[in-house]
Amino acid sequence: MKGVLLINMGGPETKEEMKSFLKKMFLDPFIIPYNSIVRKIISILISNMRHKKSWRKYQLVNGTPIIKNTKLLAGSLQKKLGNNVEVRYAFSYSNPSIEHVLDEFRSKKIQIITAVPLYPQPSFVTTGSVKNSISGYLRKSPGLNIKIVEHFFSDKYYIEFWADIIRQHIQEVNVSQPLLIFSAHSIPLLWLKKGDTYREAVNETATLVSKNLGYEHIVAFQSAMSGSKWLGPGLLDSINHAVDEGCDSFVIVPVSFVSENLETLYDLDKILIPHFSGITKVKHISRVGIPVLHNLFLEMLNSKIYEQSD
């Protein structure tokens, strides 16, 4: 028996969990790249000051879909892989934790495990954090053979997955030759200076998908935190610039996410798109939804897991 572990960031399902979710996130040295004392102070300040406001946003989008969607993805992948593999899921900042699920694999004597961070374009902030958690676990509890799927940003099934859902979306909204705006979550510029390849991976995904479809595209970054230097250009500024250049039809593609989340359902759907929908120079702006399950995405996971098992 082998194991597969799908890993995402998680999310709060109650108001009480919101505070602990923020605290865990900002204690992560890959999110806040400072020493432990500074991280502890920042995590306490942010979790105390922002949890109520953040939870109100989650309420406006009916809570986080990440946990439910990851459960469904794990269940569908289990059916695809069959009974010789046990598929589980874990989260970096909510339950079940990575360490807890690895303990459960160990208790079942499942020692060969493929871990899949559900971050298409790897970054120190995301995939790097997951690898650090797994390495820390193995230092304390050796004996498991854990292989990690490092990325899938250029995988042929992943590219066709996005091309398929973008194509369907454009047909549904009936817009002609829109500019595709590939939006990805921003990261601190500090990591790029240390060798993070996230920007290049996002650009490659966008180029491959656009080439598949035959549309023009740009890449922009969203959800940067204030008070420090983050990767750009920003999504708002990018669309404003395109409008000034005469473009009037846009389709936003949230290419760094595999599940709907606060950044898509609130930041894009409730804030950004209504803003540009009210501008007379913009004839059309919409966003491609992220399906909970898709055959091409499942096939991509299957192929990546198979590669690791060789």
Shape: globular
Number of strands: 8
Order of helices and strands: EHHHEHEHEHEHHEHEHEH
Provide the structure class. alpha/beta
Radius of gyration: 20 Å
Q: Give the % helix.
A: 40-55%
Number of domains: 2
The parts where pLDDT drops under 50 for at least 5 residues are none
User: Would you give the CATH topology of the largest domain?
Assistant: Rossmann fold
Measured distance between first and last alpha carbons:
15 Å
Instruction: Please state roughly what percent of the residues sit in beta strands, choosing from under 5%, 5-15%, 15-25%, 25-35%, 35-45% or over 45%.
Output: 15-25%
- Number of separate helices: 11
CATH first level of the largest domain: Alpha Beta
**For the report, how would you describe the main beta sheet?**
4 strands, parallel
Strand order in the sheet with the most strands = 2-1-3-4
Average pLDDT rating: 95
How does this model look, in words?
The chain is an alpha/beta fold and 310 residues long. It folds into 2 domains: 2-152 and 295-309, 3-Layer(aba) Sandwich (Rossmann fold); 156-287, 3-Layer(aba) Sandwich (Rossmann fold). The protein has 11 helices and 8 strands. The strands form 2 sheets. It has a 4-stranded parallel β-sheet, with helices on both faces. It has a 4-stranded parallel β-sheet with strand order 6-5-7-8, with helices on both faces. Strand 3 (112-117), helix 5 (124-140) and strand 4 form a beta-alpha-beta unit. Helix 1 runs antiparallel to helix 2 (36-60), helix 6 crosses helix 8 and helix 6 packs antiparallel against helix 11 (295-309). The two termini are 15 Å apart. The mean pLDDT is 95.
